[in-house]
Write a structure and sequence with these properties.
DUF3142 domain-containing protein, single chain, TIM Barrel, Immunoglobulin-like, alpha/beta, disordered N terminus, five-stranded antiparallel sheet
């Protein structure tokens, strides 16, 4: 008997399983993955069209919210700018959002409505390269969801137009996920979610675990959806989410709720880690959502461009005092002169021997200690690249006033 035969027996099937698990995540060499982007705005304002034009040089495919079936079963269409889309010559995927709480719908009518929408878009000159269904249903409803996808796949016709779906991390342990994935040509794993303020809007460790887990479940092309926005979440007294505001025009805090942000540097680092050894089948990133100049909860366009194109990120935060007139209080102005949206400083010190009044604004509140007065940030929030915000005021009738964060100091 040889030495090999004397060694403990290891089943070949077990070895093959280990090889398969390793291969699912490490078979590809380092490479930069292409970026798609969701255009999720219900109204195509000039700012949306401008952002599409400014970003098309770095986007592989637009995934555009085409229609929504709300929780009451009401169908709402959007009206994209077909002229702007035609100018870019970029493939378009029409996304149909079905409210997750909607328990039942007429599958035949819904499939017919989706086909009619596709035909209407094509008649307007929009080259529809795919259909995507966004339905955040409960895990127990996945079998019914898979049944609808099979019907829709049949109505679209095999080999005619790709069908994709968005995937929730909560589904990853369900056996029914296999039936959903078997019905589609592409799948978009959502790794940004409002679950617990402890984890925030995006948690790199949890996101990496979800990507690894999905790589073992998906046997075909797939994408990962990355967040480029922030949101405000309000929890009820029972600990459950009472409201989510992701598209309101606010800056760094308000009177209630909890602000969750996706720091650009964290997203860039996550991309770099995944692209170092992309999992099998991962075809690219999908950004949620296209930033615009009037979308104050999204990243700024310069920051988004820097992350998508893998440029170094740098913030340049400074604090200065601005006095509109000799009789008015000093405004305390926070400015970001860099290319990266940045977390606002946690505190701003106000040095003055003569304050006759002061207060915080836009997410900052006034506080006191043995050294004097200072502004304390109450909520996390991003100050957009190239932007400024008045975060407080101080009144002084004599002497000198200074305001600074850390070692960065500006004096009027």
């Amino acid at each position: 008997m040889t030495d090999f035969l004397k060694k403990p027996y290891i089943p070949i099937a077990f070895l093959l399983c280990l090889v398969g698990i390793h291969a699912a995540f490490t078979t590809r060499t380092s490479r930069k993955l292409p970026s798609d982007a969701y255009i999720w705005q219900r109204q195509w304002t000039p700012a949306v069209s401008s952002a599409v034009t400014a970003s098309r040089d770095m986007i592989h495919t637009w995934r555009i919210l085409a229609a929504e079936l709300d929780g009451h079963g009401v169908w709402v269409d959007t009206n994209p700018d077909s002229t702007v889309l035609a100018q870019g010559h970029i493939p378009v995927i029409a996304v149909i959002r079905i409210e997750g709480q909607l328990a039942d719908w007429d599958e035949e009518k819904l499939a017919a409505r989706i086909l009619a929408l596709k035909a209407a878009w094509q008649q307007r000159g929009i080259a529809v390269a795919g259909i995507e269904i966004d339905h955040d249903c409960a895990t127990v409803r996945l079998p019914a969801y898979a049944r609808f996808l099979a019907l829709l796949r049949g109505r679209l016709g095999p080999g005619t137009i790709p069908l994709s779906v968005t995937i929730l991390p909560a589904w990853l342990t369900s056996p029914a996920l296999e039936d959903v994935l078997a019905r589609v040509d592409d799948a978009v794993l959502q790794i940004h979610a409002v679950q617990n303020p402890q984890f925030g809007l995006f948690n790199p460790a949890r996101a990496h675990d979800w990507v690894r887990a999905f790589a073992l479940r998906r046997h075909g092309p797939w994408h990962v959806a990355l967040p480029a926005y922030g949101t405000r979440v309000t929890w009820g007294t029972d600990g459950r989410i009472a409201a989510v505001e992701s598209e309101q025009d606010r800056f760094m805090g308000a009177d209630s709720g909890h602000e969750l942000v996706a720091p650009p540097a964290d997203i860039a680092a996550f991309m770099k880690r995944i692209e170092h050894a992309p999992p099998h089948g991962l075809a690219g990133w999908v950004w949620f959502r296209l930033p615009t100049e009037d979308d104050r909860r999204a990243w700024s366009l310069p920051t988004w461009r820097a992350v998508v194109t893998r440029q170094p990120l740098h913030a340049a935060l400074s604090v200065r005092l601005r006095r509109p007139s000799a009789s008015s209080p000093y405004d305390i102005v926070l400015t970001n002169g860099g290319n990266a949206d940045s977390e606002a400083p946690p505190s701003i010190r106000i040095d003055s021997a003569c304050p006759s009044g002061a207060d915080g604004l836009n997410g900052y509140s006034l506080d006191y200690d043995a050294s004097g007065i200072w502004l304390r940030r109450e909520q996390p929030g991003l100050l957009r690249a190239g932007q400024q915000s008045v975060i407080g005021w101080v009144r002084c009738d004599r002497g000198t006033v200074r305001a600074y964060a850390g070692t960065d100091e500006k004096q009027d």
